[in-house]
Amino acid sequence: MAKRMTKEEAKKTYILNWRPSPPRERLGAAKFTFKPEFDSTTLPSSKDLSQYDSAVRDQADIGSCTAFAAIAIVEHIAKRNGKIPDWSELYLYYNTRVKVLGWPAGDDSGAYVSSTIKALTTYGDAGETDWPYDTSKFAVEPPLTSYNRGSTNQVVKAAYVDSSVDSIRASIASGYPVDIGFICYSNLYDSWDSGVVPMPKQGTYIIGGHSVMLVGYDNDTRQFKFKNSWGTSFGQAGYGFLPYEYVSGYTIDEPTQRLVSDCWTIASIEFDSDFVVLYQNPPENVPAPFTLTAVSA
């Protein structure tokens, strides 16, 4: 059995390179908005969609969390529809940084969630067998064969979600996991074993940002459940928990900067040239609490 990673080892391994997305990145995108009759009190008290997740993976020593979180959603959609998904995070991380953002290939610069979604809609994604995850090759452009495969694996419909507890709960309750980015403080690894992200407190400081897929919530614990990309040593077999208070909170030093932002979900994908919708019909006993509208300047 593999040795369980400790929090001290995790601190030395993982690079926290998620970046908050500039507002301009959302212009023209679809957005989830509440219907006038929607009442947040009608949502289920808890929801857990993780039974449709692909296996927990490990991003290792590069800042590719945005790619892992986005691939987690598309593989969730594929698995929900009886597919066997295995998309390439390395392919996505390269195209997000270099093709979409125009940043140097050799810079392990991280990315925005929004630009990662854009890369999936523009360049699609190769299979893991086409471009395997090898962190020493993060600066290498994938071969043409990978782009050919990517043209058959693409995100068709995505939308950003307001970074509020109710909006994210509504999305998850309706069956849609949500990718987020969150600002990380120096006490992040204190709860490595439990997976519960601790709130910032006086004396702690910002050490970076991280992106994960929120896949559940529980009103009793007041926490969202997320799929991480730090292997199964983290938290509960690779899953962690983010307090509602974290989602609604602000940084210590800048009271106008949200701790959580850049929230997106995906509604449909093309999988090996097959159009796949996450839900042909709404989940049983759950009203659809939002509509899709375009975001304008």
Automatic annotation (TrEMBL):
Residues 43-251 form the Peptidase C1A papain C-terminal domain. Belongs to the peptidase C1 family. InterPro entries: Papain-like_cys_pep_sf (IPR038765), Pept_his_AS (IPR025660), Peptidase_C1A (IPR013128), Peptidase_C1A_C (IPR000668). It comes from the Eukaryota. This is Peptidase C1A papain C-terminal domain-containing protein. GO terms for molecular function: cysteine-type peptidase activity. SMART domains: Pept_C1 (SM00645). One of its GO terms (biological process) is proteolysis. Pfam families: Peptidase_C1.
